[in-house]
Amino acid sequence: MQAEEAAIIIKTTLQKLFEPLMERISRRLANKLILLFSIIIILVVTSLTFISYGMLRKESVNSSIASTSNNLLLVGRNLESYLDGIEQLSLPQISYDEITYAILHESEDYASKMYVESYLKNLYFSRGDLEAIYLYVIKEHKYYYVTKENYNITVRVAEHPPIENLTWYKRALNSPNNRSYQSFVTDSVEKGDYPVNTDTSFMGYHRLLRSIVSREPQAVLSLYFNSSVTDEIMKDIPFAKGEHLMYVSPDDEPFVVDDEEFFAKSAASGLLQQLSPAKGGQLTWSDEEEKYLVIYDINKKEGWKLIKPIPYKEIYEAATTTRKLNYSIGLLFLIVSVILVSFISNRITSPLKNLSLQMKRFSTGSFDAEARVEGNDEIAYLSRHFNKMVEKTNELINERYKMKIVEKNAVLKALEAEINPHFLYNALQAISTKALKNNNDDIVEMVDNLALTLRYCISGRDVVQASEELRHIERYLALQKARFGTRMQVVVDWEESLKELRIPKLSIQTLVENCIKHALEKVSSTITIRIEAHITPAYSVISVMDNGPGISPERLEQVLSSLQIQWEELGGDSAEDGGHESIGLKNLNTRLKLLYGEDAGLVISSDENGTTMDMRLPRGGHGQHV
């Protein structure tokens, strides 16, 4: 309720502010022209701005998709090559038998131990991005590790508990490629894992070395890499404000992310599950604060994902700047245009204002009005003809004045010759008095009913109360009773609450006359005419029914069609089209619509069991008298 009251107050306030302004604008043609051209300019500038903004937005999106997709594809291939290099590094291609033999005998054979240490040193020297190397001998529960100490590469051996419960070991054991990757972005080092410095390492690669004969795992080679190479590869991806970059494994484990909080939020919302080759490397994703265009590249070999979410607001920045510039130019253009339109329109409307003033003087009776004529344009043409009109009017005034005097005398004589309806009414009263003196009560009653009927008809009112119309119908039917006798039966069922209803005068009589014409006059049997009134949710309904032979379907169709004729055409009915037979119904239908609106009118139905005519008057204030 408070919101509705506030809306009403705002609406009322705006009306009070704008109504005087609009009234002031509408007083002068110049103001209307200024308003018209201003609206046209605003619409044109706004439309062009929105069109160009939409085109720029679309072009920006397409450009971002094309450039970013190509860039991610290139970087993704480089990362794929990087991973392939790591895999090749972890496999002892030529000396596999020697290294497996050395691992089996390193605890009892010094030469085998030295071979293992030499192999690990060579691995360490082969790459510049290696942080540490661990070789875990499963049956001995110890590992060799290579680290850099005081610029010297040292291989050490340390005892270590079993690693069977470590996550990365389980992955390598279950992998068909005997390897697994370990990320340090979100996962911390597990209990029982190697003492790895996660601050300098971004990824661990674990290779399971199996016996060629028994396929039993003998050792695990673990390589830990820093981000020097990946940083070099990733720098080829353009990075702007609000953008993010993520490199994710096929298992949706992050290895490179620029913002861990953003990754956690996107992963929780299911973004990673939406990435598939079927979507063409792009999709739209939204978080609680931003809407992103997500461009991604999925490695075809293993399924690594390189993902770059770009905020749409950054993509649309150029389009937004252009839109603001367009609005600024449009506003400047509007100001200049309003000034020019004001100047030109005032030059145009000044002669019209003078002409309007002279017309106003002429309309008030100043027949000496004369408009100023300047130039040869349409306004000058109009002013010259106005002056000629004033001149001709002055010439005709004297002639017309004389004709009016003659016409008034003729009208007075015609009025004197008319029959005064009151004289006829008084004459009927005199006849009634004389019949009463001669004890002719039937004649007295008929004459009185006729006199009261005549008086009701000439009363001059167009709308009466239903109770008055019912008293008139009672007198009218008494006169008809003298004609048809007991063959005419009348039943009136009228709710007492509806007797105050205001209805058109003679409306019920029109419907009753139709029953007499199409029922009583067509048959010799007894006919019952029923008059009733009732209320529906939408209408007050007055019904007049008879049990006569009914109206033929062809004639009923003609009558219903004639009710659709506009009231201006009523004077055109002719006997040829049967118009004189339904003129009363058409007149009544037209009066109802004029008095009560288009929802009012007659509804007529008829069959072999009789005819029903409903006069419907809208309720709820739709009409001026209901």
TrEMBL record:
<keyword id="KW-1003">Cell membrane</keyword>
<dbReference type="InterPro" id="IPR036890">
    <property type="entry name" value="HATPase_C_sf"/>
</dbReference>
<protein>
    <submittedName>
        <fullName>Sensor histidine kinase</fullName>
    </submittedName>
</protein>
<keyword id="KW-0472">Membrane</keyword>
<feature type="domain" description="HAMP">
    <location>
        <begin position="346"/>
        <end position="398"/>
    </location>
</feature>
<dbReference type="InterPro" id="IPR003594">
    <property type="entry name" value="HATPase_dom"/>
</dbReference>
<feature type="transmembrane region" description="Helical">
    <location>
        <begin position="33"/>
        <end position="56"/>
    </location>
</feature>
<dbReference type="Pfam" id="PF00672">
    <property type="entry name" value="HAMP"/>
</dbReference>
<dbReference type="InterPro" id="IPR010559">
    <property type="entry name" value="Sig_transdc_His_kin_internal"/>
</dbReference>
<keyword id="KW-0597">Phosphoprotein</keyword>
<keyword id="KW-0808">Transferase</keyword>
<dbReference type="Pfam" id="PF02518">
    <property type="entry name" value="HATPase_c"/>
</dbReference>
<feature type="transmembrane region" description="Helical">
    <location>
        <begin position="325"/>
        <end position="344"/>
    </location>
</feature>
<keyword id="KW-0418">Kinase</keyword>
<dbReference type="InterPro" id="IPR050640">
    <property type="entry name" value="Bact_2-comp_sensor_kinase"/>
</dbReference>
<keyword id="KW-0812">Transmembrane</keyword>
<dbReference type="InterPro" id="IPR003660">
    <property type="entry name" value="HAMP_dom"/>
</dbReference>
<dbReference type="GO" id="GO:0016301">
    <property type="term" value="F:kinase activity"/>
</dbReference>
<keyword id="KW-1133">Transmembrane helix</keyword>
<dbReference type="Pfam" id="PF06580">
    <property type="entry name" value="His_kinase"/>
</dbReference>
